[in-house]
Structures are given as structure tokens and as C-alpha cells.
Amino acid sequence: MKKIYSHPESLRNQVTHYCPGCGHGIAHRLIAEVVDELGIREKVIAVAPVGCAVIAYDYWDFDCSEAAHGRALAVATAIKRIRPQNVVFTYQGDGDLAAIGTNETIHAANRGENLTVIFINNAIYGMTGGQMAPTTLLGQKTATTPKGREAQVHGWPLKISEMLAQLAGVKYVERTSLYSPQEVLKTKRAIKQAFKNQIDGIGFSLVEVLSPCPTYWDMSPKEALDWIRDVMSKEFPLGKIK
Amino acid sequence: MSKKILITGNEAIAEGAIQAGCRFYAGYPITPQNELIGYMARRLPEVGGIFIQAEAELSAINMVFGAAAVGARAMTSSSSPGISLKQEGISYLAGAELPAVIVNVMRGGPGLGNIWPAQSDYFQATRSGGHGDYHSLVLAPASVQESCDIMQLAFDLADQYRIPAIVLIDGMLGQMMEPLHITTSPHHHITTKKPWVLTGCRGRKPNIVKSFFMQQGELEKLNLALQKKYKLIQQKEQRWEEAFLDEAKVVLVAYGTMARIAKAVIEQLRATGKKIGLIRPITLWPFPNKVFTKNLKPNTKYLVIEMSYGQMLEDVKLVVNGRCPVEFFGRSGGGVPTEEEIMRKVKSLL
To answer: Which chain B positions have a beta carbon within 8 Å of A60's beta carbon?
Structure first.
């Protein structure tokens, strides 16, 4: 019998610390599958964020570096410039990439660094207990917006992918989600494209993944997936942006 | 082969770094260190190195973090306000045990301060300037020649101990031009092996560069290992210059530009028969305690002079520990003590 599915070599066989229904586990696995399929496990250098995915390096089985909060793309810039023969990617949440690290994100993108960015947007700060993220939706209740996010007080959800798409240095931006098996497969295809772009020398490529956080959305895992489909993807439209 | 050129301290540091094998520099413009970033932008590509003008001081130090993680001899430079911004990154370098060199061409503070020379970042450099129990090696040259030469030592010690090394000069030394002898055929030897660097995991288990230890007890283990390393550095790496200590009634203690002014004062006073000595710390951390402990004579007075209001003074008091009088003269905020001011202070102690 032909084996058609197995545990990715790039993913350690380890129980994760993520909450039930969290999207990080799926996203980690998709990256591991793509890395295996492209045959680049021994060439990959990952840069992990600060946030829920801070110990992503405990789950992937390839070389990884930590970065200070928001600084992943500065760290990755130097790694890729010095070792262009490696495949370098960052894995960052919304707070890391679009709040404290906005400067690093915009300028690495504007320099057109030949990097792959996997951007996990779950509209919340998970690690610290569910505070407002730059991507939190209007009306969404969080630990720091107890009455819901109000535009006049907290500003609007930040669409950083659309912003980045304006920059000449950015070559590929796609927004995907994890709310159904079909969407998971689309996310995998986008991640693969973002890695292939780097291997082919095309340039800065980013995949924004709308990812569930049932714990801090105060929902069941199923409700969280439906909320992405019915609410979150209306604010953050899915599909190729550039 | 060597040649003699006229060059600023800032440029001498850049050339010294390149001769020491530095092949990655990221920085952000700030006065009075702009000759350094300019020199790097021009020279690094000539030797196959990488120069990046970062969008911010934070980005620059984190680029250095990335460069160090893949094994490059990496450096950044700035001046006081910019160095404050880099403290987060320096703490991460210390925690992840990454070697790198950070140059601070000190200017007046606090706040935006001014662009005149100062030595008021001594505490920030020698006490872990960022969060956590850590140290950086701190080297303080006092001439353009020494600024160039000390870079080899900074990179070698950083690699050897896997520790950030800070080269601390002031704006006067950075801007001043002096003749520099440079070798035209640099032969830097980088002997330290770095099996921990990130290269992709071909033929080995994956390497991880990190300073985060979530399980209870793990971080304490790292801290104990760091403390052991710091103790070894304190034993082995103290460096200083000393002069006329045997018979000195007053010993001037000064580093960098202030040590040059001290030397001028000592020369004039010794010409009139006054017994004055000098201790010039070259490593500010580890502080050269050894030269003090071997020279604790009951009739010796120490006079610490700084372009600050008494920062190195505390280290001198710690080592002297009440066994000799320790006096102080300093100015800061851009004021540089003159020979006459110091002379008056010394005479008041004789």
C-alpha cells in the first residue's frame, strides 16, 4: 500500500502548549509540510516571534533564532544578507508584526528583502491574556477594550497587508484562513508560493493567515472557525492582495 | 607593510573593525559618530562585507543579533541617545550569548542632551544597561591609534566569551584627527570555533539561538553559567595603563580623553618635583581592580577625574574600600575639565 500522509520530518513529535482550537498548531504543521515538500529542511532558518508562538523552535525540527518582540524582520534581514544560500522565514503574530514591530516590518518590506513572512492574525494578544491587537475588530471585546473596540477611541483594525502591498519592494501578499479544510489547503498553497518566491529570488513575500483564538474570543473552537468565516473575513477579505 | 595616515577616531574604529574581520555593520546616523557609519558604508563593500543603514537604532542592534546568530563578526555604533535605544538588543545578545561589538561615541545627556563630548554613559555601559543580570565587556581607548588597535581585542574577546563588547569613547576622541599607523596587509586570525551558529541543519541536529527559558529552573541555570563566565573574565581580562605609582602621593584615575588631560597635568607637576601617578583603566568592565589592590599605600590619595559627575568614581571607591582617600573632579553636559582646573584640584590634595 502506498503511504500518502505522514508526520512531517520538519515537525517534532511533541505535544504543543497551545490551547484547544488554536490555529498555531495547524500553521506550524503547514510550514513543516511545505519545508519537507520543497526539500529545504537543512537550508531553512526560522525566526520566531514573541507572543504565543515564542517557542515555535521547540516544535519545528530545523535551525531557529529567537527575536525580541517585533524585531523578527530585522534579525531575518541580517541572516538572509549574510547567508543568501539559506531559506529564511519569520513567523509573527499581529502584535509582533503590526504593532511593536511595524517599523521593522515596513522597512524590511520596503528594502525588498528576499524573505518569507508568515503572519498569524488572530485579532488578539493571546500570550498576555487577550488584550486588544492592532487587528482587533470594531466592537470586539478584549481585556483592554472591555466594552468593545471603538473606532473613535482605539482606531480601526489595521490592514497591514494592504499597506505593505503598496510598496515596490513587496512581491507577493496573500490573505488566507484556517476556518475549513479547504481554507487550510489554500493556506498551504500560499505558504508554499511564499517559500518558492524566495528560492527563485523573487523577493519579499507575505502570507497573512486568519487564525482562531477560541480562548480569548470566548468561543468554542467551532464557533471561532465560523466567526472567521462570517465576521473576521468581512473585515479582512481573503485572497491574493498582490 | 604599514602606512601612516591622518584620520579621525571614528574612522580609526571603523578601519580597526574591518581589519579585525568585521564583515557586517548596521547603524543609524547620529552625531558625533557619523564618520564611523560613513566609513563603513564606503569600506565594508570593498572587502565583501555587508553594510545596512537601518531604519532605527532598534533595528540596527537586532540586525547585529541576526548577523551574530549566523556567525559573522558584526558591529553597530551610535552615540548616547541611540545607545539607550539599543539596550533591549544588548540584553538579548547577552542572554543568547552572542558575540558582537557596540561602539558608543558618548555625547552629553540626559535626554537629547547635546553633541559635545561626555563620559556620562559609564554606568549604562558597565552595569547591565538593559534588563537582567548581565555584563558587556567595556573597552576604553584613549587615542586614535588605540581606537583602531582595540577593535581586534574587542572582537576576539567577544567571540572567545560569547559576550557583547562595548567600545566606549567620547565625542572628542571620535572627532579628533591623529596619525594612525595601519597595516596595509591585515591578517586577522579568527580562531574561535562557533558550532552553535545557524547555517541550516545539514548533517547535524538543529541549532537554536535563544534567551527564553520557560521551564522553572532553566533560566537560573543560564544565569549561573553567565555569572561563572563573568567571574572568569574579571580574573583574566583586566587591562590598564599605569605610571609613576611607586612613589605617588596623588594618583590620578581617568580613562579615554580625560586620561590624556591627566597625563598633561602629571607631566607638568612632575617637572616641578611633585609625586603624581596615573591609573588609566583600559577595560572599564571588568574594572582593573588588581592595579588598585597592589597599590593601597596608606599615604596615597586617589583623584578620579571624569566628564561626568562621578560614575567611575564608584568603582574606584568599591575597590579602595575606605583604605585610602578617594577624591573627585568632574564636569559633564559637554564641559571638559581643563588642565588648570585639574591642577588646582591636585594641588589642593598635596
So the answer is: 206
